[in-house]
Specification:
Length: 480
């Protein structure tokens, strides 16, 4: 591609241009993790754990487990610095079938459900200041605004990866400002002598294993996203150095922010109020600064969701493109915009599915999301261990202790088993979906079966997309 063209970030020699710096990486990690969860759901952890001290302990443990997972992913991302994340690791270690099943699940369920949930929460809180404190917000208004949010984010990601990464950085900074404001309110409240929740922190702690597991799951969900950077490792300027640093700095920053937020909530709100709250950050602000909190609180939540949805869409579009280039997904998803050098059609496909999920009760799919996520996390940790044996001489700029990788395998397995025991019907549905994916691969992808109807639809979609947009196929993987 001509360097003098107006393509801001094309591809060279069949490889995506490397443009992500350490700062960009930290922005993607922090921006991808901090969504709405820390502003809305800490009361769920408190309810299941039974006490302030137990809740804080669970947040610390969940944060450390996520950090350990991130460190394991750093080894995979630095020794296989390619765009695609788990898809690339599974293909190299286990073969094409597990790689296909992962991509099938990520592109058709995990990513679009995540985007839909985040954008729905964004819409709920962006529109909240327009209604009274106790006034019911029409569901149709929330969903229409969520659709508009997905469309706008998709346009930004399709037109410029630089804009998308700048949004990630900018909204990460705004999230940290919001959290800093909350922490200052909590510190001011403690300064006035409001320390009731800290006097007997472990009183009434749960001793029920099932409740502890639920609390742990509730804390893990807002921490999901530490693997986002691996999906774009091939676009980092220096993945060997920057990926481990970005994950480590980003995770410590997230854990610190989550703990400080919880301390602020516990300082401001009585335990009973916290348990009854549907939007804990908003209630905390209202108590300290009055009606101003009814505007600032929803604004903070909406900003946080916007940045998280942007990170989710950014990474999923690249996985879909990489899978399509390999023939694991329809060829139309491999189409790249000639001018913008972005995975144009893959991004549109993710937006389309996200909007479709907004038409159903997307909240009911959260349990399936958690089960699938930790199933594939466990597979990636096992891939790390197996890769050490299969390719002992592979250059590894960053290595984790194998005891840590084995521990993460066991932890992932325990979380998956716990999911099945507590939510059997949802997990059976998820397993059935995985089996359908395996069937599609065995009968269509592996055998390269040319189903006449599917072939006609594929050819027609390629022709249509090329006619509508300035896109074309190629091996460039131009994803910047």
């Amino acid at each position: 591609m001509d360097k003098g063209s107006d393509n801001e970030s094309g591809a060279d020699n069949g490889r995506p241009k490397q443009h992500l710096t350490l700062r960009n990486g930290i922005g993607l990690v922090v921006g991808g993790i901090i969504g709405s969860g820390i502003f809305l759901t800490p009361n769920s952890v408190l309810e299941q754990s039974g006490s302030v001290g137990a809740a804080l302990t669970i947040w610390v443990l969940a944060g450390l487990l996520s950090l350990c997972g991130g460190l394991c992913y750093c080894e995979l991302g630095t020794c296989i610095p390619e765009t695609g994340g788990e898809h690339v690791y599974f293909r190299r270690v286990f073969g094409p079938l597990p790689a296909f099943i992962f991509t099938w699940s990520l592109l058709l369920v995990v990513s679009p459900v995540s985007t839909a949930l985040i954008c729905l929460t964004f819409a709920r809180y962006a529109i909240k200041p327009m209604y009274g404190r106790h006034e019911e917000i029409p569901d149709s208004a929330e969903r229409k605004l969520a659709v508009l949010a997905i469309i706008l984010l998709t346009i930004i990601n399709c037109v410029s990866a630089k804009w998308a990464t700048r949004i990630a950085e900018s909204f990460t900074a705004l999230k940290l400002v919001a959290i800093g404001f909350l922490v200052m309110l909590g510190a001011a409240w403690v300064g006035k002598g409001n320390v009731e929740n800290f006097e007997k922190p472990f009183a009434n702690s749960t001793i029920n294993a099932s409740s502890f597991n639920l609390a742990f799951f509730e804390a893990l969900y807002p921490l999901t996203g530490w693997n986002y950077l691996n999906y774009v490792a091939g676009e980092m300027t220096d993945p060997a150095r920057d990926l481990p640093l970005a994950v480590t700095y980003g995770m410590f920053l997230v854990i610190g922010c989550y703990l400080l937020c919880n301390l602020a909530y516990f300082a401001i709100l009585p335990k009973k109020t916290m348990l009854e709250s549907k939007a804990i950050a908003v209630d905390a602000m209202v108590k300290v600064i009055g009606d101003t909190g009814l505007v600032l609180g929803p604004l903070f939540v909406a900003m946080s969701c916007w940045g998280a949805a942007n990170s989710s869409l950014y990474t999923a579009g690249r996985v879909g493109h990489a899978a399509a280039v390999e023939g694991h997904m329809p060829r139309v998803l491999a189409l790249v915009h000639r001018r913008y050098a972005t995975p144009f059609i893959s991004l549109l496909f993710q937006a389309f599915l996200g909007i479709l999920f907004l038409l159903v009760d997307v909240d009911s799919l959260v349990l399936v999301f958690g089960f699938l996520t930790w199933t594939f996390f466990g597979g990636a940790f096992f891939a790390l261990i197996r890769l050490r044996r299969l390719e002992p001489d592979l250059h590894r700029p960053y290595k984790v202790n194998l005891y840590l990788a084995n521990f993460m395998c066991i932890a992932s397995l325990a979380l998956v088993i716990s999911s099945v025991s507590q939510f059997p019907y949802e997990c059976v549905g998820a397993i059935f979906f995985l089996l359908v994916g395996a069937g599609v691969y065995m009968t269509v992808v592996r055998e390269a079966v040319a189903v006449p109807f599917v072939s006609r639809v594929s050819d027609a979609s390629l022709t249509l997309m090329k006619a509508l947009f300035n896109v074309d196929l190629g091996e460039t993987g131009a994803t910047t």
